[in-house]
Amino acid sequence: MLSPGIISRPVYEGLEPDVRARHNLIIAEGEGASAILDLAKKTPQDFFAKTTLLYCPAGSAPKNYENQLQALQPKALWTFPTPATVMFRLKGVLQTATMGTRLYVTGTEPFIGLALKEALEAGIDHKSLITEHRGSAKRRVQCVHCKGFTEDVTTNPAKCSHCGLTLLVRDHYSRRLAAFQGVCIDAEVPGDAPAPEEIFP
Amino acid sequence: MGLIFKDETFRDDFTFSNSPAAIRRFPFPFHEDRYMYTVNIEPHIPGPKGSAFEFPIDIDEHYLSDMRDRAITLAQDPLRCQSLPHMLTAEWDLVELLMTSMSDHYPEHFTLTREGDDWHWINRPMGIDQTFVFGDVATLPYRPMEYITRQCQGDFCLLDQRDGDLWMDSGIVTSQADWSLDFDVGMSFKEWHAPVPMAHEVGVFDRALKFLLNMQQGKPVRRLNWTMTINPRLDTSPENYHKWGTDRTTVTPENVGDKVHLRVELQGLWRLPRSNAIVFSIRAYLIKMDELVTVPKWGRRLHRVLKTLPDVIADYKGTTRYRQTTIDWLAKFDDGAPTSKGCWPD
Ligand code: HEM
Q1: Cβ-defined contact of A145 to B242 (cutoff 8 Å)
Q2: What number of H helices and E strands is found in chain A?
């Protein structure tokens, strides 16, 4: 579960089928596969026949979700080794996407954030995306000092993987950057940083 | 009579100070002995002669030193000035607003001559004489917003209005109270205000946004905001917080008067004519405690405001480490006498 009440963070409302769309693009990571399987319980017959699935198994690889996704008989199922390779393909697909295509994204927050960012850059309004959070509560964090991004942050504070400062992970999120803000936690008394605690498991 | 500009610094040796006249015109923000967030928006109409509200854009004795500090900050970090591509029209709107206001109200320092789109701008204090074609980016040495705001005191944000919201799609921010333009670019009104405590819950931002969406051209508004800063530092950015954060631990009972500053932001809002965007100006005024208590009413009142300020607001403003030391120091200037209504000195 994600902690509630962060005003600048997008609201991930949960996957609900948009039956009017002519084509569906579902982008999923890890446990997001289970959200698609849940969605399949609510979709009309022809839904998956007009659906392209982009899937990165990530930490859920041992669960072999691909077989279950294939059983939904999507128009296409593409699997990718990493989130970055999903985004690469997504960028290409969005360039040729037609009106009437509906975008669904599900997985961890950093993954949803990166997909939203691709959509934003392709000129798609973020409010038109259908999203659901599944899996780890880990965060993607931008260091406000060196501007470097640190991936897979589960603790607070966390070390910046670029400049090495100890960062307080603030509850302030930028969709444009797909990241939370990290601010030096011991700036006032250097060396006085509290020990990291696993806050975003 | 023209202004006399001081030569002073906002970093390193911190030589900034206010003349007695600048103290008298300081926009003291507290109209009563306590403080809470409210929708404190009022028409931006001319205030008393000589006050910071006399003109829509206030230029004062710190002008040249302010502009020099901005240039230093921009040279170190160009991301303090950003603009999404669709904001270019709003940038030109801002050029018009600032050049006309500055030249109308400070004719001895600034002159604007227009013949159609051929504009001639003279900024005497900065030694600038520029002809350019309004609307043609190639005729200015910087993009329009950066060009004019390198010559005008205050930070500026340009807000695009669409889908019933305001979007921070452009800005130049070099003297901010610890928020990052680079992080907030592209956010909506409530998103960029997310870190503010208490105000969301009581509906301050709902009401403020509703008001702003309906703002009309020619009817600017203003509000005051405040915080405290140790040393007269303009660049209290999160970007450099790991460099200036230690300032907050240097306050002692002996140096409060010199080190602790009240920082007041006079924020003006205008609807722009061509772009329908809103410009938000954040003009910061600094005053050290020694200077502030030369107005007895202000010394008394600030003491009471700081004492009764809700802890979450005091924390949010970053005052926690030196708040009590400052209250204790100010106590000497509070004899318990009643204070008169309003912000002005008695
Ligand atoms: C549309 C123009 C405006 C812009 C660009 C703007 C921008 C900001 C920013 C960037 C912050 C700092 C947030 C942070 O901590 O990261 C802030 C704080 C705040 N804003 Fe605004 N704001 C605007 C209008 C308003 C209005 C009309 C109100 C009226 C109620 C308001 C009330 C506040 C308050 C109460 C704070 C907290 C300030 C403090 O305690 O120091 N803002 N604003």
Answers
A1: yes
A2: 4, 12
Which residue, among A196, A171, A185, A182, has the nearest Cα to A149 in the 3D structure? Answer: A182
Residue the block writes with tokens 């969605």: A39
Confidence of residue B1 (pLDDT cuts 50, 70, 90): low
Active-site residue flag, B223: yes
* Chain B contact for A164 (CB, 8 A cutoff): no
ipTM of the complex: 0.94
| Distance in angstroms (rounded) separating the CA atoms of residues B129 and B280 | 27
- Whole-prediction pTM value? 0.96
| pLDDT reported for residue A98 | 83
Query: What whole-number percentage of chain B has pLDDT above 70?
Result: 100
Rounded Cα distance between B127 and A41, Å, is: 72
Q: How would residue B247 be classed by pLDDT, with cut points 50, 70 and 90?
A: very high
In chain A, which residues have pLDDT < 70? Answer: none
- The mean pLDDT value for B256-263 works out to 98
In this structure, the strands spanning A179-184 and A139-143 are parallel
Dig out the tokens for B244 from the structure: 């200036």
CA–CA distance, B310 with B315 (Å, rounded to integer): 9
Hey, which residues does B157 pair with through a beta bridge? Answer: B171, B280
Q: Say how many Å lie between the CA of residue B173 and the centre of ligand 1.
A: 14
The dihedral region occupied by B186, where left means phi > 0, alpha psi between -120 and 50, and beta the remainder, is: left
Task: Output DSSP code: residue B103.
Answer: H
HSE, CB side, 13 Å, CA atoms: give it for residue A56. Answer: 23
Q: Ligand 1 pocket by C-beta < 6 Å: which residues?
A: B 37, 39, 41, 157, 159, 166, 168, 177, 179, 184, 192-193, 195-196, 199, 204, 208, 212, 223, 225, 227, 280, 316-317
